[in-house]
Structures are given as C-alpha cells and as structure tokens.
Write a structure and sequence with these properties.
alpha+beta; 6 strands; 4 helices; 117 residues; Beta Polymerase, domain 2
Length: 117
C-alpha cells in the first residue's frame, strides 16, 4: 500500500469526522506557512462522548490505511483532543473550547482545503 500524502490524511480524517456528525469541519492548509504541520483539521463535537467517538473514528479510519498517529494529547473532559500525525494535526473540540482557542483566527492566513463531498 502506497503511503498517504498529508492531503489524503486530512481528507480521510475529515470524512471520518463528518460520518460521526462532527460540526464545523475545516482543514487549514499550513504548507509554506508553518513548520508545525502541513495541515490542521479542526472539528467540533457536542459532548465529551461525541468528541471521543469522532477521535476514535479518525484513528480507525487512518489505521486501516496503515497510518498511526505519533502522539495524542488531551482527554475528552478537557474539551480538546489532538492527534498528531506529523504532517497533519487533527483537533477535535467541544464548541466552547474551540471558540476559546480560536485556531481559525490564529491561523487566519492559512487557506482552507475543501473537505466536503
């Protein structure tokens, strides 16, 4: 199986999140803007259980393609879980936590990658 590109990973993660009814799913294209990662995936959940479900769906979807995250951070009760795939960092938030950290505003110069459909 050929390795997945960063764009493939972020699209698969987005699809998995959307299938679990994540809201506000956005992919920020950080290529040429940041050395942190090529893409950030941002998604919102309605509860801590929903947050965990979305993260598990992302993990499972990418694992079926042979991709495992390098590390994860957070617990559902914190309102923010992060999966670091190296070239892609996936953030799943409770809405209030997402608003507080405002990553879309912080990275406002990053173009959006369409992840719908």
């Amino acid at each position: 199986m050929a390795p997945l590109s960063a764009e493939d990973k972020v699209r698969l993660g987005a699809r998995a999140a959307l299938e679990k009814k994540a809201e506000g799913v956005v992919a920020l294209d950080l290529q040429g803007i940041s050395a942190i990662a090529d893409f950030f995936l941002l998604a919102s959940a309605q509860s801590t259980t929903h947050l965990q479900t979305i993260v598990e769906a992302i993990e499972e979807t990418l694992e079926t393609r042979g991709v495992r995250y390098h590390h994860s951070e957070g617990v559902p009760e914190s309102g923010w879980l992060l999966l670091d795939y190296g070239d892609v960092v996936m953030h799943v938030f409770l809405e209030e936590t997402r608003s507080f950290y405002a990553l879309e505003r912080l990275w406002g110069d990053a173009p959006l990658l369409s992840v719908r459909g």
